Amino acid sequence: MTRWIPCILWSMLANPWPACLLGAAAIVQSPGEIPIACDVDVVVVGGTGGAVEAACEAARRGARVFLLSPRPYLGIDLCSMLRLWLEESEDPASKLATACFGEERFAVPSVVKSAMDRALFEAGVAYLTGCYATDVL
Predict the structure, then answer these.
(1) Residue 123 lies inside a defined structural domain of this protein
(2) Average pLDDT, consecutive stretches of 10 residues, N- to C-terminus, the chain (137 residues)
(3) What's the domain range around 107?
(4) Which of 19, 48, 83, 117 is most buried, most CB within 10 Å of its CB?
């Protein structure tokens, strides 16, 4: 069982340098309680089509799944890279790919995003966008 905390202090953003590089002997953290936001079996980190497919498949196999994406939307491999078409040699390999690209083999970012939202919702996968995992218990 994995326990995931979605929003612990952004310590890596505040100080991205490891303590050993800064000459510190150890990092001391004060004791305290960390609230558990989600109790799941599988945590998928990423907002790509592959991450959404993996999360949906794990849920279909009975796992309690949580997906988190660093961007404020899903489909980052297609939408942020503006790779919104299939090559002639490519065919949609899944129900999700077909929902994203349709018969025309060309996608619109809003369609990609809503298709991925819908796939997670239908599979019962909880998700959060615009965040980073900073600690796992």
Answers:
(1) yes
(2) 40 46 62 78 92 96 94 87 84 88 86 94 94 67
(3) 2-7+34-131
(4) 48
